[in-house]
Every structure is written in C-alpha cells, then in structure tokens.
C-alpha cells in the first residue's frame, strides 16, 4: 500500500515500511526497554540524542507519540529507526537464613534490537494526521543462576515484559502558533515469567503464577497534547496520557493483582524550548508517571502479610512509587549538513528499599542518563540520525526487604544501560 505525494513528481510514500516495522517489532522474541522506570527516555532518534526532550521541541515524526500537537509543525515526513539496547542488571542477597545469599547476574539475554517508525502528513494549513509505532517500555531479566533456587525454584529465573504502542494522531492549529492534538493509544503487550515457582504457594491461583509461557493482551487509552509559540523563539507544550486499560494476562492471573490485570500507568508532562540564535535550540521537559495507579505495579509486598494473596484484588505487587522525570537538551546546527545534540535526563527511583525482593525480577532503578546525537543531511529531503545513551549503574540497597518468614536479610538490585541508535528520515 502506498500514496502518491502531490507536488513531488515520482515520490511514493512507502507506508508498507511502517507496517513492516510493526510486524518486526511484534515478532521480536525478547525486548527490554527502561530508563524512566520502565518507560522510554524518549521517542525518535533526534529526541533521544537530546536527552529525550520533545514535549515542546519536536524534531521528527516520532515526536507525535509524546505530544500529538507536534503533527502541525514537523511537516510531511517519514522516520524509521532502530536501537541496539544493552542493559546490565542484577542483584545481591546477603544475610538470608534460607540460603539465598549470593551475587546474581540478570544478563542472560543481551543485547536487544528495538525498531520504531513514525509518519506525519499535513492535510491543510491547519490540520495534520500521523501515526507512530514504537515501544512504550518494558523490562527483561534472565538469571541463569536462579536467586530463588533455595526456596525451591527450578531452572533460570526472569521476566520479559513488552509494550508496543500504535498511536494514530489528528492535530489542529487553532490559531497561529497554537495547536491541539489527540491520539487514541492502542497497545499490544506480552509478559512471561519463569523460575518463580515458590511464589505459587502464596497465590489465589497457584497454577497461573510462573512458567506459563508468553501471554499477550491488548489495551486502549488516549493521549492529548498542546503546542504553542511565544514570539518567534519560544515554544511551550504539554501532554496528558490516560491510563491504558488493558485486558488481563490470564496465564498470570495468580501473579498480578485483580486476576492478571496489567494496565499502563497514566502520565503527563510540560515542556519548553528556546532558540537564542538561529543555530541553537535549548529545551527542557518535566514528566510525571503514576505507577502507583496500577495495582500490579504499585501495590507493595506488605499486602501478602496482611492476608491478601498474589492475584487477588489489592494483592501484592512490585511496590513501585510515582516518579518525577526532568530532562534538558540542546540542538546545534553546526553546518547546513550537520546538526549536533546533547542532553541529560534525571528520574526518581521507583523502587523503595523495602521492595527490592520482587524487584530482583524487574530492577528498573536507573536514574540519570547522558546522551549525544547527530544528524547528517544526505540530500535536501533525506537524512540520517544517530545517537548514543548511557545510564550509569544505579544500586538500590535493600532495607527490611526480605521478610523474616522468607529468611530475612537484604536484597540489593542494580541496573545500568547503554544504547546506540540510527534512524532514516525523509521529508516528503
């Protein structure tokens, strides 16, 4: 399927490339994405090179997956990218009377290849449409040496959570320099847990806790955005994404609260950018992610010792708290053919020190990430963008993390991340 682009003789828009990218994303056997908890630090190669800043600093078609209003300003374009992502995750258990003590590596699966794609098309001077296909986030661990073996677990341990978002967008310019956008958010997500058999003894449905293969579910939510200009050199923006209401993971109905429910948390944010010169743009974003609004993620392990089993309404979860995320980034046009980027992002740690035991399986604890990026223009209409990201190792040291009934002691978890990415952009 393709569309002829009016006014560009011979130019055919390859929408089949986006469809292919979606299929490739869904077919990947394992993915792991995390920086802002388990959310991505940005969407699109240009934003990722500038610290993830894009609420009010849109640079390519993927920006509409964060702020739908950006569709009115990025022009008619297609962007397709790929990231090589390498997380370093693990745990250390000490002082445990049940024999769990040891240092454990969760890096049995590495690296990961993560595709994304976005397309935007203006329909008139005031209306634009688009679509993006990318990952919201995810988490993967694979412990060849099972940290729970002395509890009776067998085989390796780990989780694999994947969340793929498909976001059609409509944006309208309400007045000169002021736009609103709206996007239904369609989600395909999968989950797999293995090597956690001992937790079945604390579940309302022991058969649906661990080692049940990969389960899939779908969900829907909505995202709205605003983008405005103040004078010629300043932009402001904001977005709100509702909770994504998802179907239940039936194969893990004895693990997640509410019989396997695993919604995606609501989030919102504001941003600003300023261009002090024609060649330099500086931007900053603030985002809030409401992890505590999803029982499977936000409920603490304490529920178990209050008599509520895994899988029940208000049952135990991973104990994640809401996080604030700050990002700053710079874009500098060095020459007519070369644009340089740099940025930094800082997120709260969602995992309390008392909740590290279960989070051995999902240690989304990195806080800061540094980025560099560049775009090279291949022609008037084509460009290649690359970036690198490094999130230094962050360790959360347990405090009261292993209950006395599980042998006591402490579980420390850590995570570091490295990513490199490349995208191809085409102005149509």
From TrEMBL:
PANTHER family: OUTER MEMBRANE PROTEIN NMB0088-RELATED (PTHR35093). The keyword Transmembrane applies. It is a multi-pass membrane protein. Coiled coil: none annotated. SUPFAM superfamilies: Porins (SSF56935). This is TonB-dependent receptor. Belongs to the OmpP1/FadL family. Residues 1-26 form the signal peptide. It comes from the Bacteria. The keyword Membrane applies. Keywords: Cell outer membrane, Membrane, Receptor, Signal, Transmembrane, Transmembrane beta strand. It is found in: Cell outer membrane.
